Each structure stands twice: as structure tokens, then as C-alpha cells.
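Hi R.,

Here's the chain you asked about this morning:
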Amino acid sequence: MKQKPFAKPFVAILTSHTNMRDEIIACLERELGEADLIGVWHTFEHTRYYEQEMGTNLKRCLVSFKRVISMDELIKIKLFTIGVEERFKVHGKRLVNIDPGYVDLNKVILASGKGGGHMIALSPCVFADFLLWYNKGWKVLPWTYPDFRDGIYFEELEKMRQSFKKRKE
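And here is the predicted structure, written out as C-alpha cells:
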């Protein structure tokens, strides 16, 4: 039997309540293990999609974790992060959006609850979004989200990729 493929898990945290980051990460570490890279906050201004629910002045940061996962764990991790989002709801509105994903040597995948277009169904309510491809540097795809497209996360994603590569050697 062939060995399962593995990857390095990470999350993209979106919120205007950046002071909650440590509390959010502590919740995530219960399922994903110790964080090993906590990225800087980047202004999120490419879409207003989340503003009605989450307010304005949104920022996003990436956080990766030391352990590796089998790629099929992404469904379970997405369902877990939905629970973390629920924990931080106020008056029925999310204060935080958490998109889990993974990095391996060749790609970045994010999990989403929204399907359509290029999304690949992993379960009835979890979809894989092939976000970036690696070929001597990160390459965007036609559907890559604008904030990932503009390269602001490339350095952090490369650190995650290199950390994963060292574990595989």
C-alpha cells in the first residue's frame, strides 16, 4: 500500500480584532499542535465580502504549525476551525474567519466551505482551493485570491515550505 502524502498545515486568520490573535492561536494549537511561524498582519482590502459580518479594518495573517498532516486531514481541520470561529461569535456574527490549508513542496491548498468553479469537493461541505503552485518560486493561478496573488505572503509561505522540506529530508 502506498504511503499517504503529507503536508505542513497553516491557517489564514482574518479579523479586525488583531488583539485576539494569541487566544485564537491557543485554540488552534489544541488541534494542530504548536505554532512555528506566526506571520505579520497584512491589511485586507481586496474585497468587501466580509465587512458586513466582520466590520472594516480587516487584517490577515498566516500561522503554520510544526507537525505535518496527511492531506486527508484537511476536512477535519476545516470543521474544527469552523468551531473556533463559532467560539468567537458575538451577536451571531463572526469576529474571525479562519481558512485552514497546507503547504507541500509543490503547492498551497486552502480549505473552504464555499464550492464552485475550480474548487474540488473533499466532502459535502469542504472544498479544496488550489491557490498557488511552486516552480522556482510561487506562481499564481487565474483564480488565486488577490491578497495571495500580490505576493505579500510569498516569503512566509516559502519559510513554511522550507520547514516542511527539512522534515522530509
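One quick note: The chain has one domain: 6-105+145-168.

Cheers,
M.
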